[in-house]
Amino acid sequence: MTDDAPLLGGRYRLGSRIGGGGMADVHRAMDTRLQRLVAAKVFRSATDELGRKRFAEEARILAGLSHPGLVTVHDFSADEDELFLIMELVEGGTLADVAETGPMQPEDVADIGGKLADVLAYVHGNDVVHRDVKPTNVLVGNDGRAFLADFGVSRLADAAGRLTDSGMVVGTTTYMAPEQVSGGDVGFPADVYALGLVLLECVTGRVEYPGGPDAAVARLVRPPQVPYGIPARLRRGLLAMLTADPSRRISAEQAGDLLSGRTTEVLAPIPAPLPAPPRVPQQRVQRPPTESMPVQQQSSRPPLAPIAAGLLAVVAALVLAVAFWPSSSETPELPPVSGDPGPDRLPADLENLERLVRG
């Protein structure tokens, strides 16, 4: 960085290029007013007045965010000949650099994932969608701290006129959510899914869906392969973050709770039930006078006619029985005593008994 280098915005002296992409370059720069090192993201493409206005609105939103895991935006310019962002400079590398050395320890992945999910939860709470979460957008400082960078960069790119007239999907294909690939609405759940793919790549050491059209479609027919044998909090978190249906996917706040171990069970969002169809009142049909009367509905009570007939039959039987019942005043005629009690009298008693029975 030399003293004769041109000043960006009349204030920032550009130094070496430290990163960039298809639409902008990131330089190490010196803030000559505050005498501090910063990162200057300079967009290469110009845009019209409306685009510059949208760019300025997005930059103000990003500058208003403040979180320990966020790369802070200090300044911006939306002039016709200068379109740039001035951000906090993080000395170190990216998560992509760390992942290139091989699979990370699962416990480390869970720890960094919980912190990044907390950052997403904070940003989502401020109604900002990242739309391009990927390893190169996660900065890892020399002190080991992780920062989520380029929040809103996709929206800023849109404002800068980088989208094609055909409505090209913004984002990195490798980490897109299924709803992004299929052209659906892109909201907070898409950021959660992308972070899940980033963490899965860190723990397995391989890209789950490599770039290209075939890989973009693959996530629509094949779910990500979350390995067994990793810590329970990491496996639960990844499975819940990588749910294909965005309405069933957990939020960034829930992902942070799972990955950090603050909770062990998180319920996914339950879609609201469909409203019941309105009831249509049935109209009573008016029958013409010539029609026969409708059959009355039978009652569950037993009919009275059979019961009355049965009672009359019982009463009649009782009357006949009383009429022909022998009078209690009549005493049956007994045979004369055959002698003194004893064994000698037994034959005579049996004969009298037999005669009495025969009548």
From TrEMBL:
<feature type="binding site">
    <location>
        <position position="41"/>
    </location>
    <ligand>
        <name>ATP</name>
    </ligand>
</feature>
<dbReference type="InterPro" id="IPR008271">
    <property type="entry name" value="Ser/Thr_kinase_AS"/>
</dbReference>
<feature type="region of interest" description="Disordered">
    <location>
        <begin position="270"/>
        <end position="301"/>
    </location>
</feature>
<dbReference type="InterPro" id="IPR000719">
    <property type="entry name" value="Prot_kinase_dom"/>
</dbReference>
<dbReference type="GO" id="GO:0004674">
    <property type="term" value="F:protein serine/threonine kinase activity"/>
</dbReference>
<feature type="domain" description="Protein kinase">
    <location>
        <begin position="12"/>
        <end position="267"/>
    </location>
</feature>
<keyword id="KW-0067">ATP-binding</keyword>
<keyword id="KW-0418">Kinase</keyword>
<feature type="transmembrane region" description="Helical">
    <location>
        <begin position="304"/>
        <end position="325"/>
    </location>
</feature>
<keyword id="KW-1133">Transmembrane helix</keyword>
<keyword id="KW-0812">Transmembrane</keyword>
<dbReference type="Pfam" id="PF00069">
    <property type="entry name" value="Pkinase"/>
</dbReference>
<feature type="compositionally biased region" description="Basic and acidic residues">
    <location>
        <begin position="342"/>
        <end position="359"/>
    </location>
</feature>
<keyword id="KW-0547">Nucleotide-binding</keyword>
<dbReference type="InterPro" id="IPR011009">
    <property type="entry name" value="Kinase-like_dom_sf"/>
</dbReference>
<keyword id="KW-0808">Transferase</keyword>
<protein>
    <submittedName>
        <fullName>Serine/threonine protein kinase</fullName>
    </submittedName>
</protein>
<keyword id="KW-0472">Membrane</keyword>
<feature type="compositionally biased region" description="Pro residues">
    <location>
        <begin position="270"/>
        <end position="280"/>
    </location>
</feature>
<feature type="region of interest" description="Disordered">
    <location>
        <begin position="328"/>
        <end position="359"/>
    </location>
</feature>
<keyword id="KW-0723">Serine/threonine-protein kinase</keyword>
<dbReference type="GO" id="GO:0005524">
    <property type="term" value="F:ATP binding"/>
</dbReference>
<dbReference type="InterPro" id="IPR017441">
    <property type="entry name" value="Protein_kinase_ATP_BS"/>
</dbReference>
